[in-house]
Amino acid sequence: MLKYETIAQDIQSHIEDGALAPNDKLPTVVDLCERYGVSKITVKRAFEILTERGLIASKRGSGTYVKNTTELFDTGAVDPLLMGEDGTREDTFGFTRSDQPIGFTASHSARGRSVNSVVYDFSVTNPPESVARHLSISPDDFTYYFCRVRCLEDDPITIEYTYMPIDVTPGLKRDQLYHSVYSFVQDTLGLKISSFHRIIRAVGATEEEAGRLRLDAGTPLLEISQVGFLDDGTPFEFSVARSNGMRSELRDVNVI
Questions:
Q1: Buried residues in 141-159 as b, exposed as e (16+ CB within 10 A)
Q2: Quick one: which of 1, 147, 19, 172 has its CA closest to 81?
Q3: What are 134-144's pLDDT values in tens digits?
Q4: What's the CA gap between 209 and 215, in Å, rounded?
Q5: Is the predicted pLDDT of residue 204 greater than 70, yes or no?
Q6: Quick one: three-class SS letters along 137-184?
Q7: Contact, 51 vs 57, CB < 8 A?
Q8: What's the CA angle centered on 78, arms 72 and 82, to 5 degrees?
Q9: Which one of 54, 87, 98, 147 is most buried, by most CB atoms within 10 A?
């Protein structure tokens, strides 16, 4: 393992075991050079790796900090979409990190299945405070918000609620929502999707969701809430996807 990879892994281990907590400021490049006995280039390369993994972010004129991905667990910081109808959190299966950028369209089209979407909402809005925190923006900033149902062979499988910062993903149009949004991000905007931090849990379908997914209200759904990151560590998406597990395997809904 190369020296910068060793440093990146060491810092990541400190993040994972809690020695470096969310929002903690990392030591300076100079301090880390002295600690590990390496050059600035080596430390900066380690930082690049951790940024690509969505674990740290730099703030101009301030330093480099551990990203607060644990906010997805914080009841006081989440969007109402992540709450049960009685205002409490429902069962959480666990937190995962994935480098997989393949979305719903690419995942199913590759297996020869017809994919289409029904778009219920597409607007420009200020995000809720909790969503703004996930996206590292201000609640006064503007995001695209859209709600759509993804269908296989015209059978509704997944309902998605998504916020994307306009400054990060400019030019998104309603027509694109009927296709792959990730294709727009990567092929049209030329951005590189790097990683996702996800929470998987079970929820009951609301009456509105039940109607859109052709289910009974209260039917168990598999929910994946996630923050997506570009290769420079910038969050480009906060989304919640709720899927009918009886119609789709876990691998089908593990990415959005």
A1: eebbbbbbbbbbeeebbbb
A2: 147
A3: 888 999 999 99
A4: 8
A5: yes
A6: CCCCCCEEEEEEEEEECCEEEEEEEEEEECCCCCCCCHHHHHCCHHHH
A7: yes
A8: 90
A9: 54
State the amino acid at position 80 in one-letter form.
P
Strands 143-152 and 115-125, by their bridges, are antiparallel
Residue of 97 and 160 predicted with greater confidence: 160
The CA distance from 220 to 197, in Å, is: 23
What six digits make up the tokens of 35?
């600690």
Say which residue the tokens 């590189």 belong to: 192
pTM above 0.85, yes or no: no
Mean pLDDT of the chain: 82
Q: Would you say how long the chain is, in residues? A: 256
Which alpha helices (H) appear in the chain, and where do they start and end? Answer: 3-16, 29-36, 40-52, 104-109, 129-135, 181-183, 207-213, 250-253
Smallest CA-to-CA distance from 51 within 231, 248, 251, 252 is with 231
The packing angle between helices 29-36 and 3-16, to 10°, is 110
Beta bridge partners of 197: 97, 227
Compute how many other C-beta atoms are within 10 angstroms of the C-beta atom of residue 225: 22
Q: Which amino acid is at 125?
A: T
Give the torsion sign (CA, 75, 81, 82, 84): positive
Residue (of 195, 193, 194, 186) closest to 226 by Cα position: 195
Q: Which residue has the tokens 């470096």?
A: 20
Q: What whole-number distance in Å separates Cα of residue 137 and Cα of residue 139?
A: 7
The percent of the chain in helix, strand and coil, each rounded to the nearest 5, is 30, 30, 35
Phi/psi of residue 98, nearest 5 degrees: -135, 145
